[in-house]
Amino acid sequence: MHNELLWKWQIWLYLWAAGVAGGGYFIASLINVFTGFTQEKLLKYSISIGLPFVIFGTLMLLIDLGRMERFWHLMVRFYFHSPMSIGTWVITFWIICGFLLILIWLSEMNLPLFKWCSRFSNFKNLIGGIEFVLSPILIAYTGVLLSCTNIPLWKSYLLPPLFVISASSTGLAAILLVMIVRGEEIHHVMGQTSVLLSMFEAITLVLFLLSVPSHIIVKGALSFAFWGGVVVVALFIPLWLKLWNLGQERESDKLLMIAAWWILLGGVILRAIIVIGGQVSA
Amino acid sequence: MSLNRRNFLKILGISSGGLLLKPVKSKASNKKSFKNEIAVLYDASKCVGCKSCQNACKRVNGLPPEISANGLYDAPLELSEKTWSLIELAKPKDKHPFFFKRCFHCTEASCVNVCPTGACHHLSNGVVVIDQNWCIGCGYCAQACPFEVPHLGEGEEKSTARKCFLCIQRLKKGEKPGCVANCTTGALQFGKRKDLITYARIRVDELKKQGYENANIYGDNELGGLHHISILLDKPSVYGLPESPQVATSIMAESWLSGLIGAGLLSVLIMPFWLAFKKEKKDSKEGQNA
Question: If you placed Cys at A214, which of A2, A149, A209, B135 could pair as Cys (CB 3.0 to 4.6 Å)?
Fold first, then answer.
C-alpha cells in the first residue's frame, strides 16, 4: 500500500504554528526597523505569542515521529542537503534566542527573580538580530520542506513564498488579537498592513495554484474546503472586514479582532488542504 | 541599464513569471562515485513472473506475509513495509508483461538527500540502506522517493522506514542477493555495475533486432545511475515508471530563494506605510514641541 496520508494533522498544525511564530516576529521586526526602533512592544508581543506556538508545533512534529524517543538523533547531526535537518536547527536556535530575549526583557522589568539575566542585556540587539534573520528562514522552511519531495502538488517554487506570506499574515493576526484583548491602542497602519498581506497572499495563492496540478483542491474532493475554508474564511471575510473597517471614521477593534480570528483559522485550513491534497492526489 | 522604476518592475515581472515554470532537473548535481560498485540487472524479456524472487525476498529477510482485508494470506499488490520486492504485471497484452519492482538504489537518491538524521545512506558499493537503529520514522524518505519505495513499519518495531537493502548480510558472506539466487530463468543477474551495463547494452541491441523497437535500459543514467537496472521491452511509462525521475531536492536552492524573495517583497510592500507612520509621529511630536 502506498503511504497515503503519511503526514497527518500533526504536520499541518506544526507548519501553521511554526508559521505564526516566525511570521509574527518577522513582521514585528520589520515594523520596528521601519519606525526607527520605536516598536519594541511589538517584538515582545510576537515572542510571547511565538514561543508557545513554536514549542507546540515542535511537540506536534515529535508526536508524528514513528520513533519519538529518538528525536535527539535530529540534534546531533546537521545535513545541509536536508530541509528537515536545516529546519530542526533553525527552530532550535529560534527557541533559544526567543527565551533569551524574554529573560532580558524580564530583567529590564527589575524583577528580583530575573536580575541575573541582566548579564545578557549587552547582547539584546545581537540576539534580536539573529532572531530576525532566523524568522524568514523558519517560515520559508515550512514551504521548502514540502517542495523538496516528489509530490506534484507540493513541488513548486511558489509554495515557500505562499507560506512566508501566509505565515506573516497569521503572525500579525495573532499579535493584533492579543493586543486588542489586552486593550492596547491599535494604529490604523496595523490594519492597512494586514490588508496588504491578505491581498499579497491571495495573489501568491493564485500563482501557486497555476504552477501545480491543483485539480483536487480547486475542483476535486477538497474543493469545498478550499473555496469555503481558504478563499472565504481566510481571505475574503477578513479582507472585507478590514477594508470596511478602514473606511469607517472610527475604526472598530472588535471587527479587527474578528478578522484576526478568521485569518488564523484560514491559515490552518490552507496548510491542512495542501498537506492532505498533496498526499491524496500523489 | 539603469535601475529606474520601469526597469525594476520589468525585472520583477520576468522573475515572477519564471517562478511559474515547471521545476527542472538541477544541472549542478555532483555525481557520486563508489568503490566496487555493484548492481542487479533485471531482464524483463527473460522473466516469466514465477515470483520466486519475491518469495525468496520474504524468506531471506524474515518478512511477514500480507494479510488481506478478510483475514486471508494474500499475494501483495504493492510494495509495503513488509514487502520489499514485487513482480508487477505491466501490460497483460504483451508477451513479456512482468516487471520486478524494488528499491532502485539510486546514485542521486532522494531518500538519502532528505533524511535529517543520516539513517538513510549509501554504502561504499552504491547500495542504499536505512539504519534501523538511527531512523526516527519521520517519513520524509517516503514522501521524497520518486518510486514510492520506502514504507514505515508497523507493529512491535513501530514506524521506522523499511525497504530492500540488497541483502547486504548475504553479500558479506559472498552470496548473491536472495532474489537473484532464486531466479528460475536467469532474468536477474548480480555483479559489477559496469559489467552489467555493458551486457545490458548488447542485450538491448539484440532485442531491437528481434523487433522490440522500444527496448531500453532503465537505470543507466537515470538519477545518476541506478543499482537496480532493468532491461525493458517498452517505454518506462508502460511499466509504471517515471520517464525522467527527479531528485526531490533538485529544486531546493530555488525554493529557498523564492521563499526569501517572498519575504523581501513583503518587506518592500509594507515599508512605505510604516515610514509614513514614522514621519507622521515625528511631525506630531515636533508640532507639540513647537
Answer: A209
Nearest to B259 among A164, A187, A197 (CB): A164
What's the rounded Cα separation, in Å, for the pair A149 and A232? 29
* Predicted local confidence at residue B226, as pLDDT: 97
In a domain, A210, yes or no: yes
Would you say residue B17 has pLDDT above 60? no
pLDDT in tens, B145-192: 999 999 997 655 558 999 999 999 999 999 999 999 999 999 999 999
A1 located within any domain? no
Q: Do the domain assignments include residue B219?
A: yes
Question: Which of B138, B145, B256 is the closest to A84 by Cβ?
Answer: B138
Which residues, other chains included, contact A228 with Cβ-Cβ below 8 Å and sequence gap of 6+? Answer: none
Cell numbers 478478510: residue = B70
- Domain total of chain A: 1
Residues 101-120 of A with CB under 8 A from B: none
Q: Which residue would you say has higher pLDDT here, A1 or B118? A: B118
Give the structural domain span for A250.
9-281
CATH number at residue B82: 3.30.70.20
pLDDT tens-digit readout, B256-278 = 999 999 999 999 999 999 998 88
Residue A193's CATH number: 1.20.1630.10
Residues in CB range of B195: below 8 A, 6 or more apart: none
Half-sphere exposure (CA, 13 Å, Cβ side) for B142? 26
Domain range enclosing B196: 38-244
User: What is the spatial distance between Cα A145 and Cα A128, in angstroms, rounded to a whole number?
Assistant: 25
Q: Is residue B265 part of a domain?
A: no
A136, B260: Cβ pair inside 8 Å?
Answer: yes
Rounded-to-integer distance, Cα B249 and Cα B106, Å: 14
Q: Of the ranges A221-235, B183-197, B221-235, which one carries the lowest mean pLDDT score?
A: A221-235
pLDDT digits (tens, 9 = 90+) for A134-149: 999 999 999 999 999 9
The three cell numbers of residue A6 are: 503519511
- Structure ipTM: 0.92
Q: Is the pLDDT of residue B131 over 90?
A: yes
Q: Which has the closest alpha carbon to B107: B43, B30, B169, B177?
A: B30
Contact assignment for A140 to B275 by CB distance below 8 Å: no
B37: distance to nearest CA of chain A, Å? 23
C-alpha cell at A148: 523538496
CA dihedral B227, B230, B234, B238 (to 10 degrees): -70
* Domain assignment of residue B221, yes or no: yes
Taking CB atoms and an 8 Å cut-off, how many pairs form between chains A and B?
A: 205
Helices (H), chain B: 5-19, 52-61, 110-114, 140-144, 168-172, 178-181, 193-209, 252-289
A155 falls within a domain: yes
Mean pLDDT, chain B, rounded, equals 87
SS3 for A55-83, per residue? HHHHHHHHHHCCCHHHHHHHHCCCCCCCH
Q: Are B73 and B209 in contact (CB under 8 A)?
A: no
Does some domain include residue B235? yes
The structural domain count of chain B equals 1
